[in-house]
Structures are given as C-alpha cells and as structure tokens.
Specification:
Rossmann fold; 14 helices; 2 domains; alpha/beta; Histone, subunit A; 330 residues
C-alpha cells in the first residue's frame, strides 16, 4: 500500500490542474469500494482516497477501510497517514493529495479519487474558503470567552448560532470553534453560509474533472447500512475502538468518526449491543442524507445500481463516463 506525507510536488506546477481529475463519489455504504477496485484494475489506475476518516491508522473496521487484500489488488494512497490522536485537516490532505497525484502520474499510471467526504470534494475542486482576514484583537477576545465558557458550552453557543458548523465541528476542536465564532462576529454571517456560497454555482472557478456518482434506491441503501453495521460489529469493532482509546487515543478529528462513541458506550456497559447497532445505523443514514447536500453543488454523472455490486456492465459505463474507455484500458 502506498501512503504519502506532503513534502514537495514531483512536477512543476500544481498537479491538480495539469489534467482533468477523475472521481468516483457516493453516499456511505453505496458500494464505491467494490466498483472502484473493478474499474481501477481495468483502467490501469491507482486509488486516491477522498475519505476524511481513512487517514487514521488502526481505525479499519469502523471506517470500512479497504482491506489489505483489496489494497494489494490496487495501490491505494492517502490511507493510514496519521495516528488517531493527531490533528489532520483538509489543508494537510490537499498537500498530501498533490504529492500522491504527482507520484502516480510520474509512473505513467492513472489516478482515481474515491470517497464520500463532501467538504474535501469541494476543497479539491474549488480550493479552500479562507474567510475574512484574522482580526487579532477579536480572536483574543473570543479565545478568552471560550476558555471561560469551556469547550462544551462554547460549542453549544456555536451550534445555536450556526447549527451547520456546530454539527460539523467537534466540541473539542477549539481552534475551529473559535474561528467559526470569529467569522460570525466579524461578518454577521455564519461560517456555514460563507462556505455554501463558496461551494455553490457562483463560487470560484472549478477544476476540470469528470465525476461519477454511485447511488441506490433509498430503502436499499438503508438496509445495506443496517447490514454493514451488523457485520462491522461482528468483525470486532468494539475491540478496535477500545484499542484506539487505550493507545494512542482519539484526537478531535478521529473522534468524529461515525459509530466509535456508540461502540465504546456498549463496551463500557452504558448500552447493549442492539442499542449500539441501532444508534449507529440511524446516524449513518442521517450522514448519507447530509452527503447528498454536498453532491448537489457539483455536476455529477449519477449511476444507479444495486448496493454493493460491481457488474462488468456498470464498470464499463463508469469507464466511459470517466473517458477511460480508449487506448490503454485493459
């Protein structure tokens, strides 16, 4: 398996702008992994993860990370980059993505971005929303207020004023809580409103890309989420979560991974296994719906398929949509 940590691009210029990007996206549990493996093998491509939780080592079962056997079939990049205790954000990911993409192309291989993290998709294609310039006096004032209130109360204040940002930013991620409150006070508008505008049709120039989306009927996806959650619990998710908590521990980013808090609640005897399964299933279904709000911001060529399947016919359709059905395709 190939991993990359940002140093300096192998080529002059931004590799993200050198030629159109190819992406396969879709809601969680929609079957992207199986389809990506099939088309990458046929097209001579390598996979670059577009998933914010696959960067954490040791969080394999609960993030549905591609298995070692799957990564042996097709090289994967941007996976297992940091410990769960470390801070890793979209800026670091973009730097690592540039390095990985340059490396793949330098070896004459194709690159396929695969994943479901909508915010990272927006950053990849449109760059990062920087926000207004930092007002140092205002920031110091907000930092002091957050220290006085405590992280939980400060996050509750943010959630009340900007529910979307509050739902995305973890209560322990003090730096991002401060920044969101700062933008709100400085501009009179929530950070989430600025980001929607940045990621919408009137936003900045979008990088050239061919994006294929995999979707399934709602009831099929819902049942697939329930089945997958059950299988992940059977596979040892509780033991995995306990191991991470013991060493190295969950940092603010890894702590946002779906289901880990519920699995630990089961491990600690606060709830039983069935309750953990039901909580995780419900949260994952809500998350899949939220992913859809990000996808509406982009021109995606959607393909319908039964969940978890990767038929040769579907693979051929996706390859043609990616413009990879010409010379060089196996």
């Amino acid at each position: 398996m190939a991993t990359h940590s940002a140093q300096s691009p192998a080529e002059d210029g931004d590799p993200l702008d050198r030629e159109p990007l190819r992406l396969l996206v879709g809601p969680t549990a929609s079957g992207k992994t199986a389809l990506a493996l099939a088309i990458a093998e046929r097209a001579g491509a390598e996979i670059l993860s577009l998933d914010s939780m696959l960067v954490y080592r040791g969080m394999d079962i609960g993030t549905a990370k591609p298995t070692r056997a799957e990564r042996a079939r097709v090289p994967h990049h941007l996976v297992d980059l940091v410990e769960p205790s470390e801070t890793y954000d979209v800026q670091r990911w973009l730097a690592d993505a540039r390095l990985a993409l340059a490396d793949v192309r330098a070896r004459g291989r194709r690159a396929l971005f695969v994943g479901g993290t909508g915010f990272w998709l927006a950053a990849l294609l449109r760059g990062l929303f920087e926000g207004p310039p930092v007002d140092r006096d205002l920031r110091r004032s907000i930092e002091e207020r957050v220290r006085t209130l405590g992280s939980a109360a400060a996050h509750a204040e943010l959630t009340r004023l900007d529910p979307e940002s509050g739902g995305r930013i973890h209560a322990n991620d003090t730096k991002r809580v401060v920044r969101a409150l700062e933008v709100l006070e400085q501009t009179g508008r929530p950070l989430s409103a600025w980001q929607r505008e940045w990621g919408g049709p009137a936003g900045p120039r979008e990088r050239a890309a061919r994006i294929v989306g995999l979707q399934s009927a709602g009831e099929l996806l819902s049942e697939r989420i329930r089945q997958r959650t059950e299988a992940m619990l059977d596979a040892g998710w509780r033991e995995e979560a306990l191991a991470v908590r013991a060493d190295p521990g969950f940092g603010p980013g890894a702590a946002q991974a779906l289901g880990y808090a519920d699995v630990l609640a089961w491990a600690d005897g606060e709830i039983d296994r069935d309750a953990a399964r039901d909580r995780i299933t419900q949260k994952t279904r809500r998350f899949a719906r939220r992913q859809g709000t990000w996808y509406r911001k982009f021109a995606i060529d959607w393909r319908s398929a039964p969940v978890g399947t990767a038929s040769p016919e579907l693979g051929g359709e996706v390859l043609r949509a990616l413009a990879w059905d010409g010379p060089g395709m196996r």
